[in-house]
Amino acid sequence: MKKTSSLDALITAFERLPGVGPKTAQRYVMHLLQYDKAAAEQLSRALEEAAAHIGNCLRCNTFTEQSICTTCSDEHRDPRLLAVIETPADQAALESTLAYQGYYYVLMGRISPLDGVTPNTLKLERFLARATEPGVEEVILATNFTIEGQTTAHMMATLLKPYPIKVTRLARGIPFGGELEYVDLPTLAQSLRQRRNT
Amino acid sequence: MKKTSSLDALITAFERLPGVGPKTAQRYVMHLLQYDKAAAEQLSRALEEAAAHIGNCLRCNTFTEQSICTTCSDEHRDPRLLAVIETPADQAALESTLAYQGYYYVLMGRISPLDGVTPNTLKLERFLARATEPGVEEVILATNFTIEGQTTAHMMATLLKPYPIKVTRLARGIPFGGELEYVDLPTLAQSLRQRRNT
Description:
The structure is a homodimer.
Chain A: H1 5-14, H2 22-35, H3 37-53, E1 55-56, E2 63-64, H4 70-73, E3 78-85, H5 88-96, E4 102-106, H6 124-131, E5 138-141, H7 147-160, E6 166-169, H8 185-193
Parallel strand pairs in A: 3-4, 3-5, 5-6
Antiparallel strand pairs in A: 1-2
Helix pairs in contact in A: 1-2, 2-3
């Protein structure tokens, strides 16, 4: 792309987004400047606004504009339960089941050495401090069932071992509506080993 | 993602980029707010700057901060040649060959009814006005060899038919270093039909 200085600067700025290389950055810039300048201005304002006002909740670490987020401020929740998830999106997924009434802790990531995310980067000691507060009886490790999520869960379980807290993991098994024939083998094996009385 | 109002606004703003859905928008926002607030501020400023200062060259339609871009202002170029390309990136590719000394016209897109880009959206009449200026002897249709690019080239050739201007298209054939065995069939057939004397 023939670059003028502010074009150049804009392409470079987009390249700092995860998974965005020069081609995608050029495509975004082309679209915004050629077809949707209003969107460029909207995005600029939204970024400025968000960078200035959004921080992390002092209790659960999720994004919030207050010092304590609305979920942590909600006194009708069950203080004995603490679910640990990777991202705010995971929290939203659990919330939408309406099956959980406890509090959350949002890691904002997962241990992933390839991406440079270590237990230190994740500030697991902050999680540990929250999980061992008086009143917490069960910590539900609700990280994803990916290799990184499993590693993170394992690490948190190890950290919690010295404490008299029940540590659980979300159940794995055949999904709702699942047909045995099409379920992948590890999941099917797991569902057999962990079969329950009706 | 648990949304606060400015989070919400930022995700929505990212979703206006081409090919960006809710998941990607959330990933961008997560990255910027959690790991790289400096990048958020940089992107915000770059967008504001670019939206305010970058417009289209009055002659060739490319992005520029002046009213006439540096290429169109360059009087050492050959005024008899005009190459039409789809994007500034295509112009950069042609320039880097050092094999072309004429002027350019940048369509900033291609005819693509599925994306809502019609001859009207592309403002082909502006191209026609530029191509039929006195002094232009040859118009090189250098749009891509995709279906959309071919359609656009065909449309421009039709528009230029009434005028005494030579209209050419970039040559197709076996690429530099290409081995016949691995060249796709349409390209090989084309290279046979358009064989040249050595």
